[in-house]
Amino acid sequence: MNVDDIKREFPIFDDKIQNNDLVYLDSANSSQKPRVVVDRIYDFYTKEFSNVGRSVHYLAVAATNLYEQTRVSVQKYINAKDKDEIVFTKGATEAINLVANTFGQKYLSEGDEVLLTELEHHSNYVPWHFLRKAKNIKIEFAEINDDGDVTLEAIEKKITNKTKIISVSHLSNVTGAILPIKKIVQLAHSKNIPVLIDGCQGAPHLKLDMQDIDCDFYAISGHKMYGPTGIGVLYAKKKWLEDLPPYQGGGGMINEVKKEGITYGELPNKYEAGTMATAQVIAFNESIKFMEKIGIQNIEKHEKELLDYGLEKLKKNNSINIIGNPREKGGVISFTIEGVHPHDIATILDEDGVAIRAGHHCCQILHDKLNLPATARASFGVYNTKDDIDKLDEAINKCKKIFNL
Amino acid sequence: MDLKDLYQEIILDHGKNPRNLGKFDNYNKDEDIAFEGHGCAISMASASIMTDMVRGKEEKEVKEIVADFIGMIKEKDSLETNILKDDEKTKLMSLSGVKQYPMRVKCATLSWHTLTSALDNSDQVVKTEE
Predict the structure, then answer these.
(1) Interface contacts A/B by beta carbons within 8 Å
(2) How many CB atoms lie within 10 A of CB A230?
(3) Hey, which of A43, A90, A306, A334 would disulfide with A375, CB 3.0 to 4.6 Å?
């Protein structure tokens, strides 16, 4: 893959940002958008717009077809068995809330345990916390080790006969740890426990095969996959979507509505109440095509090269402390600089157009465990180059100079 | 925007070596001031300079200084209170660099809101947003 060509497909890099060439190292937060995605939204609204699934006029039928085409593209991209296993949501957060809510309603009661890990993003903790409050369930956390990794053994240690569901990250947005999800699923299934994978950081960077992973649920964020905001995907095995109750009630998700009672629609409509983010879903198809065109293997290889180069470069830089050293690591480097708070690092780097994130990255449990109030984080996407990492390193040096380090 | 306005020597000095940090070391005194916490250079420097500046002052005077400082960070170009000497005002004005960095304004004002809350004996959690 030619990174320069790929970068040119992203309009954000055309112009200077605050008089600087943009060095965007915040893709774990949200990725930039290629022109095809932005254009698709504009074209849909200006030439093809209609609501989907209701009316019989030409535009409505065409829009419905486009909307359903994205479902099929996602199905193929993640190798799901059936297109009805793809539910559109407003994001990965809603996908996890959907599972916590409906699974919790039907299968969790007082004293039952939900098993998470210490490296989960708040979006894979707070929805379960709601159940802890409402139903008096327990939440257990598999521990991270000194490398910022969660091993299969750490998961196994926390499984009890009360464990009703396991919900874990595919790839940590802080340490970059790639969890052994296939083995976790095998272990869980051997004890009849379903598994939800928070795939926010997995889907944009790793090859996905739902039938191979065999997880019960997989949550995907569209805006981290070069797609629009307001769109996410819940993959769920058909048996679960048929078995669990609906999530939100409204138009589109029903079969028959009478004063005496209501029957719900077939899949996938059952979980898509109200007017969905139609333009975003249709444009998300372009994100999938964009990633397919580059090839996920090439994306993985490119980001691994960036990661290795970045780690080597930053490790040489004195006073930088890199957070976590997992066995398998994605394109995320979280770090601290002795004597400079991460918020000061982020402000100083921003002055040179180097966009990183500072804070707890929605992972307070992890930061508490590491005894760090905050970290700085550089994360990679398809458009990043080794030159970006050199600029990061230079900006860090400037930061050290300002602080007389 | 200029980083030199934000990270002036005095800020870096107070950020690195905050004055009055830690628990009170002399409980026999009737009145004293100290602060605990960790944070960025701006927030540490702000708390450090603030605690130096209000030590020994009357509650009414402290409240006037707080209002003047927060007013300066938010809109005014300078400090207006007569309670502070000119060199003290200059010292406080070193924090005015945050005005160019809207995301960092709260770093400078957090300890000041906390001080107000302490004076009012409030048990509410202090917020920098209104």
Answers:
(1) 34
(2) 17
(3) A334
**What string of pLDDT tens digits covers the 405 residues of chain A?**
899 999 999 999 999 999 999 999 999 999 999 999 999 999 999 999 999 987 899 999 999 999 999 999 999 999 999 999 999 999 999 999 999 999 999 999 999 999 999 999 999 999 999 999 999 999 999 999 999 999 999 999 999 999 999 999 999 999 999 999 999 999 999 999 999 999 999 999 999 999 999 999 999 999 999 999 999 999 999 999 999 999 999 999 999 999 999 999 999 899 999 999 999 999 999 999 999 999 999 999 999 999 999 999 999 998 899 999 999 999 999 999 999 999 999 999 999 999 999 999 999 999 999 999 999 999 999 999 999 999 999 999 999 999 988
Contact call for residues A347 and B104 (beta carbons, < 8 A): yes
Q: Which two tokens stand for residue A313?
A: 């470069």
**CATH level 3 topology of A295-402:** Aspartate Aminotransferase, domain 1 (3.90.1150)
Distance separating alpha carbons of residues A165 and B21, to the nearest angstrom: 46
Catalytic positions of A are 362
Domain extent listing, chain B: 3-119
Q: Give the span between the Cα atoms of A176 and A372, in whole angstroms.
A: 17
Domain regions of chain A by residue span: 38-292, 295-402
Topology, domain B3-119: Sufe protein. Chain: A (3.90.1010)
Pairing outcome for strands A375-379 and A332-337: antiparallel
- A53 phi and psi, to 5 degrees? 75, 5
Contact B46, B18 (CB under 8 A): no
- Classify residue B75 as exposed, middle or buried by CB count within 10 Å of its CB (0-12, 13-18, 19+): exposed
- Say if residues A229 and A223 touch (Cβ distance below 8 Å): yes
Distance from the Cα of A373 to chain B's closest Cα (Å) equals 8
ipTM over 0.95: no
Nearest to A158 by CA among A134, A188, A178: A188
Tell me if B101 and A403 make a contact (CB, 8 A cut-off).
no
- Please count the CA atoms within 13 angstroms of the CA of B126 that sit on its side-chain side: 17
Q: Is B107 on the interface with A (CB under 8 A)?
A: yes
Query: Among A107, A63, A148, A83, which Cα is nearest to A372's?
Result: A148
